[in-house]
Amino acid sequence: MKNKKNDNFSEWFTEITQEAELCDLRGNIKGFIVNMPWAVITMKKMYALYEAELERKGHKPALFPSLIPESFLAVEEEHVKGFVPEVFWVTHAGDKKLEEKMAMRPTSETIMYKLYSLWVQGLKDLPIKIYQSCPMWRCETKATRPFIRGREVWWIEAHDVFATKEQAEQQVREDMETTETIMHQQFGIPFVFFQRPQWDKFPGAEDTYAADCLMPDGKIIQQPSTHMLGQRFSKAFDIKYLDAEGKQQYAWQTCYGPAIWRIYASIVSQHGDDKGLILPFALAPVQIIIVPIYKKENEMIVRDKCYKIKQILSQSNFKIESDFSEETPGAKFYKWEMKGVPIRIEIGEKEATSGKLTLVRRDSGTKEQVDEGKLIERIQELEEIIRKNLVSKADEYFRSKFFKASTKDELKEQLKKGGFVRIPFCTIEMEGKECADYVKAETIADIRGVPFDSKEKPSPNEVCIHCGKPANVYVYAGKQY
Amino acid sequence: MKNKKNDNFSEWFTEITQEAELCDLRGNIKGFIVNMPWAVITMKKMYALYEAELERKGHKPALFPSLIPESFLAVEEEHVKGFVPEVFWVTHAGDKKLEEKMAMRPTSETIMYKLYSLWVQGLKDLPIKIYQSCPMWRCETKATRPFIRGREVWWIEAHDVFATKEQAEQQVREDMETTETIMHQQFGIPFVFFQRPQWDKFPGAEDTYAADCLMPDGKIIQQPSTHMLGQRFSKAFDIKYLDAEGKQQYAWQTCYGPAIWRIYASIVSQHGDDKGLILPFALAPVQIIIVPIYKKENEMIVRDKCYKIKQILSQSNFKIESDFSEETPGAKFYKWEMKGVPIRIEIGEKEATSGKLTLVRRDSGTKEQVDEGKLIERIQELEEIIRKNLVSKADEYFRSKFFKASTKDELKEQLKKGGFVRIPFCTIEMEGKECADYVKAETIADIRGVPFDSKEKPSPNEVCIHCGKPANVYVYAGKQY
How far is CA A274 from the centre of its chain? Predict the structure, then answer.
């Protein structure tokens, strides 16, 4: 690639989305991209893994309308204030003006909870655990970038209702575990869940816990967040149940929103290198590429062997292709490395006659000889080895990006390294907002909040990095996308 | 159920969508429904089967923007005329008016072909075979009904580009085969592909071939259609390639659009009975329901057996549940029959102690005894037996609904039976439209067109049912949804 990931990540990212054919921007509709097959196939696998895990934990899929009448949105005051500025409005059908304008779903609380209020009558109707996989639309005014920030985002939104606060809190933890199981262990994207400051919550939530991840340039990208909605929406939408004593109680709610489209940006960025994409085996559109290497005189035996190996492998569930195009072997290596195919099998005359095959791993570049009879078994092992390698490489980078500072000068210095900088801070309640604004103005750093379940506490003599009052919390600051 | 399918189908359909919990209409947004989990789980399985077949035949998934600028739509004249009257227009984002209004995708020709014109340069870029699974929106002005006609429809649209007319024609036939493999053989919905009259084509197509199916009331419902677009769009969008002689040639195009949401209406209607849904095994959200039948004194041995059987079955990929709710066994039978679960295993004291289990099929109502050790094997057999039974029942009904008429009086008489009535007709070219309009006005029947590849020809003395000129074709007429 022309651009180096560690020197100029931003250009590298743009280049890889084009060279690996992940998207096409020539539709020329600001914030909307054409998602190309190579990206969509991986996103479909991401959806499948995520959905299976949500279903294993009791969620069921539904599909709610994508158009939401204005009056629905208006029910919860903070929510409407938070979303209306970036809503796409449908005002006409054909040449007729609609009686009431409708929002293209920016998120589905208002339409879903209107129905939930009808579904929840008694304890027997709880819990509700429903998700939908669908696009959502927000007219982002900041610069848009493929997969990182756009106006159309394919995501999953899960909306759950419980009888008690404890159950809702338990769900928040479950959502974090799901993020760990899928996004970290399967996709190889490490994160920290931060309890966001009160001024940076999901509009309408009581508390927001957002998974912050890092890009290779050290900037923070927010991935799935899970929200303790408390009883705010249940009161606004009248979601209540008759308890065991026959009293009406408002329900407790949570929601969780992994944006598959955006997590894909993290996968591309985290694992890729200067040769192109590196994909976890489970997510690769092609998992094994067979590349024949032959001259005129041995073409037939090499071809025969390629067919035979493809035959053997097709007894497994692997996605295999063989590249018999006119290109040189070198050009083929280049192409499939760019595409991030996890395993390459090179077959030349030696392999065609010896019963041993040459496997090359994309993640590590290592070559190994494998007995033909042990091929499937070895690839099954490699799937897991590759997954673990990508996770541990990503973890190593992530862990190296936590720093500390006590003053704004130190903070500015540390921020140059990218990542997260721990600073002593007065409070993440609303009163802390002014300090956060000053910190942002002076350092460009956002206050991301307090790590979930963190036991770290400032010592009694530590003071807020801005106001100088006693520090109640350590917060983490960093530059965000 | 209160309503009988064969007496008052329309009410039966409304009742089953509520009793089996397929949708909720209380969002109260005209034409938009809440698709409930029981329907969505089946639709996801339908998507998976359809997508796998399309991919097996060389299609790849992509995702194009759901908002299409007005100027894109305007490129192909007939196309824009056909769709604009029912387009939902986005005119504002937040409180700002958009510079150019955008249509919520009513279908994606215009955005996809704009890109295709960039992708196709030479023969090496062909064929293109791409599909996307997504919602589309059309502001239907006719009465809307859940799954049958709505303003938001989840579908698949496949758009293909070829170098030659022959390849495009071959694709039209492939789309028909895909419909046969999936919609008929897997979903159990028989159809006939009709070449539509020229006045009833997809806007912008040269020829439309649409699969007409029947509802239990004998009315026709159009399911997937495949369109020979010819070179109309390639000329409008400038999709051309350099041929072997170095000359620029316009490409040939086809598109194919199975509406999963609408095919689901056919599945519900075709297979269901007066006890509720009947689902093909492959599409059922729960495939096997275990119902324990016990009294106080034998509760424990029955429960133990249920657990054990569930354990055994979970070694397979079957979706199994056991119903330990407080309801009576009768209430449980009723519930799971309503939901269309293909196989019920009843476990009472006899089954708990004898090593033999009682299986009840939903599709036929037949009971059978199965050795515990042969349970999985038998259920695997039943999956195929049930599929075949549903297909052959549906075929039998479908075949019984083809009639003939030579005069309008005969036609009116035959139309009372529902289904398709073959009539001699002047022509399905544009000149025939006037006759079709008269037939419609006098009989309420639509001219559906000529069956694809039909060899039937009127004899020389037969005349058009309306104008009395010599009949060139047999067309089929019927009442449509």
Answer: 22
